[in-house]
Design brief:
The complex is a heterodimer of chains A (121) and B (108).
Chain A (H helix, E strand, L loop, with lengths): L2 E5 L3 E2 L5 E8 L8 E6 L5 E7 L6 E3 L7 E6 L4 E6 L8 E8 L8 E4 L3 E5 L2
Parallel strand pairs in A: 2-11
Antiparallel strand pairs in A: 1-3, 3-8, 4-5, 4-9, 5-6, 7-8, 9-10, 9-11
Chain B lengths: L4 E2 L2 E4 L5 E6 L9 E5 L6 E4 L13 E6 L2 E6 L8 E8 L6 E3 L3 E5 L1
Classes of the chains: A mainly beta (121), B mainly beta (108).
Chain lengths: 121, 108
């Protein structure tokens, strides 16, 4: 059974930093690209970032480029999102999602339950 | 444009057929994927590719595409289908993903 378990979400002040983690199990982690997707309270889904199977390629939404960094540790079957210079508009539930391909597509076949990040003073 | 446009709200009578649409220029190039999200839950993939359903998704869900419009059709909608539905695709670079704004489906 595929499982994606996010952690690390907390309340943080504007300008602060945070690192989210996603522990994956139930599939061959290093065969697939992975994504972060977020959802602000009461709003729709927003794609945040993509990392290829080997970490060699990474892509970011314009709204987070230069502030967020996606990474992965295939030996630990884990995905990460380093979030710097946080803003109020980054407040959201952050989902980890498994891609169906190695290099990345828009087909997210499994999702975690999300971890809540609140940026507030 | 890389945007995907969905009707914010759609309704259907119990047992009837409903079509939820998603419009975007890049849908001429890429098939949309469709996700169902119920309150308090993570999204679930329901349709991908030309018209493919993951294991466990009822066959009343189907997908189609024509030009810059992708559609999700529920034939014989059930009460449990009441949810938010999102389409997604890739942007013009092919490296970024875009989501539609979502359609809230109400089953009357």
């Amino acid at each position: 059974e595929v499982q994606l378990v996010e952690s690390g979400g907390v309340v943080v002040q504007p300008g602060g930093s945070l690192r989210l983690s996603c522990a994956a199990s139930g599939f061959t982690f290093d065969n697939y690209a992975m994504h972060w997707v977020r959802q602000a309270p009461g709003k729709g889904l927003e794609w945040v970032s993509l990392i290829s199977w080997d970490g060699g390629s990474t892509f970011y939404a314009d709204s987070v480029k230069g502030r967020f960094t996606i990474s992965r540790d295939n030996s630990r079957t884990s995905l990460y999102l380093q979030m710097n210079s946080l803003r109020a508009e980054d407040t959201a539930l952050y989902y980890c999602a498994k891609d169906s391909e190695m290099f990345g597509s828009h087909l997210f076949d499994y999702w975690g339950q999300g971890t809540l990040v609140t940026v507030s003073s | 444009s890389s945007e995907l446009t969905q009707d914010p709200a759609v309704s259907v009578a119990l047992g009837q057929t409903v079509r939820i649409t998603c419009q975007g220029d890049n849908l001429r190039i890429y098939y949309a994927s469709w996700y169902q999200q119920k309150p308090g839950q993570a999204p679930v993939l329901v349709i991908y590719g030309q018209n493919n359903r993951p294991s466990g998704i009822p066959d009343r869900f189907s997908g189609s595409s024509s030009g810059k419009t992708a559609s999700l059709t529920i034939t014989g909608a059930q009460a449990e289908d009441e949810a938010d539905y999102y389409c997604n695709s890739r942007d013009s670079s092919g490296n970024h993903v875009v989501f539609g704004g979502g359609s809230k489906l109400t089953v009357l």
